[in-house]
Design a protein that fits this description.
Layout lengths: L1 E6 L2 H12 L3 E6 L4 E3 L4 E3 L2 H8 L3 E3 L11 H14 L3 E5 L7 H4 L6 E5 L7 E2 L2 H8 L3 E8 L9 E8 L6 H25 L14 E2 L15 H10 L6 E5 L2 E10 L13 E5 L2 E5 L4 E9 L5 E2 H4 L11 E2 L2
Parallel strand pairs: 1-2, 1-6, 2-5, 6-7, 8-11
Antiparallel strand pairs: 3-4, 7-9, 9-10, 12-13, 12-18, 13-16, 14-15, 15-16, 16-17
Length: about 325
């Protein structure tokens, strides 16, 4: 089967690698333009582009695919490349550009999307983060036949995955990337034989996973401890939950709710106890025990090691960064 692949980050690279390894013919990859990254802010190719170049696959990086948009010449060049690829299907995974109707109509079997949620829950940009933040017990991957809407197309395959109590966005991302890679290979095998049966998404249960903003990372200690614990896991590795102690900004990477603690009489944000097992902080409801922290310019450290270089004592106040 001839495929065009459209994707950008590591989540997409896992699928591209699986498709390449399955023997699929991939004459063209679409990915986002190179972006500045790292301390030197040098232009860096996406994970998908790096894989494509390593394996001699042609790459197109239009800033838009809208023929009547801001970059019509780039869109027209991409259209020529897509038409020349004569693809049976296009596979899309975390690409980052909206596909106009002319793209959706181009491949013989249409465009198949790998989406990291159990649609219609968590349509949109950040389904993994939002599932953890909301306290969902499970998530999964949906292979979807794309249409003009935002993650509204018919479902072709769905597989569920439990969210563990220690899962972060980073760990769950890797599990879902591997699952999605396996699923898209199987889905295309079924598509080739005509065995895929599209199922319309339910009208009930629609939620939107809005893009993560850095401002969300500043923890509000008036919220319940259970909510803050989920936020810390949801914002790992990006953008990293933040707080201030003694006027210094810190990142918080791991914590747990102290189920044995009495309801704190102290104001939210007050440090209640400090030990090598954790820093107990009063919240709007309950107590949160911080177990992995990071100073600006430093490394993530377990609390015992962190406290060797950072003085903390009961009565201090943890604020919003």
């Amino acid at each position: 089967m001839r495929l065009i692949f459209a994707g950008t980050p590591e989540f997409a690279r896992a699928a591209l690698e699986a498709l390449h390894g399955s023997g699929a013919e991939i004459p063209l990859v679409l990915t986002q333009p190179d972006r500045p990254a790292g301390r030197g802010m040098k232009l860096q190719a996406s994970a998908v582009k790096q894989f494509a170049q390593l394996h001699g696959i042609a790459v197109a990086q239009p800033r838009s695919l809208r023929l009547d948009g801001k970059f019509p010449e780039e869109a027209a060049a991409a259209r020529s490349a897509i038409e020349a690829a004569r693809a049976d299907a296009m596979v899309v995974a975390a690409y980052g550009l909206i596909l106009p109707q002319w793209v959706l109509d181009q491949p013989r079997l249409g465009c198949l999307n790998i989406h990291a949620s159990l649609l219609p829950r968590w349509r949109g940009a950040a389904p993994i983060h939002r599932a953890i933040e909301a306290g969902d017990a499970e998530t999964g991957v949906t292979i979807m036949q794309m249409d003009a809407g935002l993650d509204t197309g018919a479902m072709l395959q769905v597989q569920r995955l439990p969210i563990g109590p220690a899962d972060t966005t980073g760990t769950l991302h890797d599990k879902l990337a591997a699952l999605g890679a396996r699923m898209i290979v199987a889905a295309l095998e079924q598509a080739a034989s005509g065995a895929l049966q599209p199922v319309a998404q339910p009208a009930e249960g629609v939620t939107y996973a809005h893009k993560i903003e850095k401002a969300e990372a500043a923890l509000d200690w008036s919220q319940p401890a259970a909510v803050l614990e989920r936020k810390i896991r949801a914002f790992d590795p990006f953008p990293g939950a933040t707080a201030t102690i003694g006027g210094e900004a810190l990142k918080l990477w791991a914590a747990h709710v102290d189920a044995d603690a009495d309801a704190p009489a102290a104001a939210p944000g007050t440090v209640l106890a400090v030990s090598d097992r954790g820093v107990a902080v009063a919240c709007g409801v309950g107590v949160l025990c911080l177990t992995q922290l990071q100073r600006a310019g430093g490394k993530r450290l377990p609390v015992a090691q962190f406290l060797r270089g950072f003085a903390l004592a009961p009565g201090m106040v943890v604020g919003r960064a």
